[in-house]
Fold:
Amino acid sequence: MNEKKRQHYKSLLNEQLKELMKEAAKTINDLTVTDGEFPDPTDRASWESDRNFLLRIRERERKLITKITEALERIEEGTFGICERCEAPISEKRLEARPVTTLCIKCKQEQEDLEKRGIQ
Structure:
């Protein structure tokens, strides 16, 4: 992979990371509500349900932040875009769709087939 493409993916990943971090900060601000603000138990239950849903989304985003950080490290190490299983280049089409990927499409399909059969 040439330097121009590495910089493209680095920029793409940094932009995703920036957006996720902004959303995480917004969530912290949005969730600072005191108990006295809910005179109606139904309102409280609704808020708690929404809060739990939002926290599940943020947990997924936290995992994505970790994957983005690891992808940025692979760019610095020079291993970005190389399948960690078969060491073949990962197609640019796949990297554009999922820049945090560590597997080429063939290895990912094999992994998913094994997971479906209950073998890992």
Remarks:
- The helical segments are 3-30, 41-77, 92-97, 105-116.
- Residues 82-120 form one domain.
